[in-house]
Amino acid sequence: MRAHRAYIRGAALGQLGDALLGDPRRGHPVAAFGRAAAAAERALWRDHRGAGALHTALTVAGAVTAVATLSRTARALAGTGGATLVDAAVTWTVLGGTGLRREALAVAAALEAGDVEGARRLLPHLCGRDPQALDADAIARAVVESVAENTSDAVVGALVWGAAAGAPGMAAFRAVNTLDAMFGHRSPRHLRFGWAAARLDDAAGWPGARLTAALAALAGPSPRGALRAWRTDARSHPSPNAGPVEASFAGALGVRLGGTLSYGGRTEHRPVLNSPGRAVRTDDIAAAVQLSRRVSALALLVTSVAGAFGRKRRAERGDG
To answer: Does the pTM exceed 0.85?
Structure first.
């Protein structure tokens, strides 16, 4: 229980660090992991699922081992306080909620100023869509969808795995999420090689996505609309995790998400989420950001309580 209390304190400090400072500006550990993963991909690449699975296993294991070793060393040298500092540092570097919300609001500010071209230049910081063909409303819709999905990926999912396995669990989740972003897309080079990263990311993101959707319904202005959209529309989305999150945000905010979009010159026609809602407007970005902030705060509370309860039950059973 002492170890979990240290993790709770560290997670809270790390989330405070993210709120006050945003992402580290230099030497970001996630960027360093990405460079290492890219180097490993060049060495291990074969047009085969097995090669991709080996790459995924080795890189995720490396990230987990590094964080676990750092945590053990800090505890040995400085006791619980040292472990708390490591947990805080890992949480700060893994979470990306503040950076996400800042980028979203920057796009909103450009749109409110009538600078659609400026908003197009900023959009790639949030998502991989082709911005040049998008008008102001389509940009706003892309931002709201990105805020919804990344609230799960950049905040809630990491907190869920932190509650389950401490700082190493958070590191594992961020490593898997990064590998999926780098190699999980369906390009010719990574169609087979990236399969393992994409499927592992689906599995790792499953609990965080459902918790995000539930908290969006709880914290949003229309809980009934969020639950209805989640229940009726989420399964039609091609992503098993983005579907519940985006549908719940859409219903909570009373807007329509989904529809036609373009990635890398490839057009996709996605199902509409929350069809009774209205089209997204620029001012909906601020509403989505506010909902993301509330969901993130509730997620820290829920995962801390759930993690403490789980540790207590295991201790009572004599499992550690």
So the answer is: yes
